[in-house]
Amino acid sequence: MSALSSRISSLAPFLLQSPPGQVENVYNDIAGLLQAEEDTEGSSISEKEVNIQLRKAADPALKDHNEQQFVIVKVQGGTATSDATSTIICQEARLQVQGRNRYRHARLPISFEIDHKTLATTAVKSLEHNAEVEPLRRAWDAALAEYIGDRYPDGKAAVFARLLGEPTGGSASEIEPTAAPEKGLASSEEADDSDKKAEEDAETSAEGSQDVEDKAAAESNVPAASATLKEVSGPAPLVAHIVGTRLNPRNFWAGRWRGTYTYDPSHSSVLAARYQIVVHYYENGNVQMNYEHSEELAVSGASAQDAESAAKALTRAIEKAEGEVAEGISKQVEELGGDAFRAMRRMLPVTKQKVNWDKLVSYKIGSELSK
Question: Would you name any one GO CC term (predicted)?
Answer without folding.
Answer: F-actin capping protein complex
